[in-house]
Amino acid sequence: MSSEILVLGAGMVGVSTALALRQRGHHVTLVDRKAPGLETSYGNAGLIQREAVMPYAFPRDLRTLAGVALGRGNDVHYQLPAMPALAPRLLRYWANSAPAAYAPLAQAYGQLIAHCLSEHAGWVEKAGAQDLVKRQGWVRGFLEPAGFDEACGQALQIAREHALGCEVLDSSALGRLMPALRRPLAGGIHWTDPWAVSDPGELVARYARLLQGMGGEVVRAEVQSLQPLGAGWQVQTHDSVLQAAQVVLAFGPWADGATRALGYRLPLFVKRGYHRHYAMDKPLPMPLLVTEPGFMLAPMARGLRITTGAEFAAQDAPPSPVQLAQAERMARGLLDLGEGVEAQPWLGARPCTVDMNPVIGAAPRHPGLWFNFGHGHQGFTLGPASGRLLAELISGEAPYLDPRPYSPQRF
Length: 411
Ligand SMILES: Cc1cc2nc3c(=O)[nH]c(=O)nc-3n(C[C@H](O)[C@H](O)[C@H](O)COP(=O)(O)OP(=O)(O)OC[C@H]3O[C@@H](n4cnc5c(N)ncnc54)[C@H](O)[C@@H]3O)c2cc1C
Known about the structure:
globular, alpha/beta, eight-stranded mixed β-sheet
């Protein structure tokens, strides 16, 4: 039976959920304080990561932990004042990264990731967005031989177990693939299945236009509160009141505040990240992750986008783009980079959970309220796969995947 549904949040997750609901005949209104795709779903590295079957675990070996604590690497940075408040959730994240706990969590994550390309494919075609998508994968590059052999062994094993395309590139093969590199790297691991999007925010915007073309509505409004009203829901925005039978909350890194206001205490936290574009005459053919120190070089419509690893800090703390500054310095040693395109780096936040899996399903104590957030490092990848799952649950269809690992009830 079709229903009036408000989808709150127009990032990749919200827009994809709205599309899947509209496809099933529901009357959908998508609400965001900004135009679709201008927050986290704009600022990422643009990868649709079919290879990301192992979610990003908390490091457990003492050497890596000591390196992070002493600020040696560049892939993780932390702001000390935020740590006391973050510690309980990071401890749970750490515990969930122990091998025995991690294995079933990774299996659950992998089953969702397995559908990322097929679920994006239909929407990319219907949205006429093929021009934004390159289907040649991405490369994890190694500056030094240390660690390369071990990483190749692990990658090839994951590739075998999950039927993924993976090629090991020696130094000269990588140099031929990426002639823009000014110095030889030790080698690279080429994941061949993933897609690279040249303007992630624009892909979300095209999906939103597709939604409008299918009869869905897109409303620009700041949501101030959300309350049950009779058998449905009432949403107070800065200038209006919206009502519907059901509501989907897809606020990404802002989900914690909205769910707390309803009395939930979900173990959510954020890993902040930065990017900046640089002019570049000789573009890279595909994204390149520079392992150790850990930053991504992603060719995009606006230039070469350097994205950083994780920063543990309060979501609204002032920026401290030390990782970006170091990444830029190193990138200038690897490539002929021109000027920065923006005056200030972009700062956003990956919406994370302590068990690395997203929160998809019915709100435990509020009939008609549904959650879809917490997609961490791969929300751009997982929007359509998790949007479909939630739309099936809302519509009372048999879900295409076992939804239990993502249920909000699990906390
Ligand atoms: C540096 C970096 C690199 C990344 N690289 C990748 C990658 O290559 N591949 C990948 O898959 N993922 C990547 N990610 C992660 C990915 O970007 C996120 O997981 C994903 O964008 C989350 O999408 P979302 O729709 O949940 O959140 P968002 O895109 O943030 O959308 C949430 C929306 O809610 C709206 N909102 C919030 N509060 C309110 C309110 N009160 N009223 C109205 N609207 C509101 C916001 O305006 C926003 O539009 C990266 C993240 C970072 C930071």
